[in-house]
Amino acid sequence: MKNAIVIILLLAGIFLAYQGIQTIQSSTADVEILGIDINASDEGGQAAGIMYLVLGVAALIGSYFAWKKA
Fold first, then answer.
1. In whole angstroms, what is the distance from residue 46 CA to residue 12 CA?
2. What mean pLDDT do residues 2-11 have?
3. What is the end-to-end Cα distance of the chain in Å, rounded?
4. What residues form the membrane-spanning segments (predicted)?
5. What's CA 38's distance to the chain center, in Å?
6. Domain ranges in the chain?
7. Cα(19)–Cα(14) distance, integer angstroms
8. pLDDT tens for residues 41-70?
9. Which of 3, 7, 46, 5 is nearest to 23 (CA)?
10. Averaged pLDDT, 3-22
11. H or E stretch including 41?
12. Does residue 11 have a pLDDT over 90?
């Protein structure tokens, strides 16, 4: 049973970290108009991406400690 928890936490951590990176990358955009670079970012999207990333890292750390305890 403990091995199942470790695997679930590991997969959730990988998924959340990947989702966080994708959310952060998709919330920024660069446009060049007449030689002028314009950078636009969605701060709400970046905050959500950071939360996904933090939760993913926490799940990965939790899976490590659960594995060490098993």
1. 20
2. 91
3. 10
4. 45-67
5. 26
6. 2-69
7. 9
8. 788 888 999 999 999 999 999 999 999 986
9. 46
10. 94
11. strand 36-41
12. yes
Count the alpha carbons within 13 Å of 12 in the hemisphere toward its beta carbon.
15
Contact of 20 with 70, CB cutoff 8 Å = no
Residue in the structure block whose two tokens are 């049973």: 1
Report d(CA 48, CA 14) in Å as an integer. Answer: 16
pLDDT value for 62: 94
Structure tokens at 43: 């701060």
Distances (CA, A) of 57 to 9, 19, 31: 10, 12, 32
- Structure tokens belonging to residue 38: 């314009």
Which tokens sit at 57? 């890292």
* 3-state class (DSSP) for residue 4: helix
- CB contact set of 17 (below 8 Å; sequence gap of 6+): 52, 53, 56, 57, 60
* Placement of tokens 């970012």 in the chain: 41
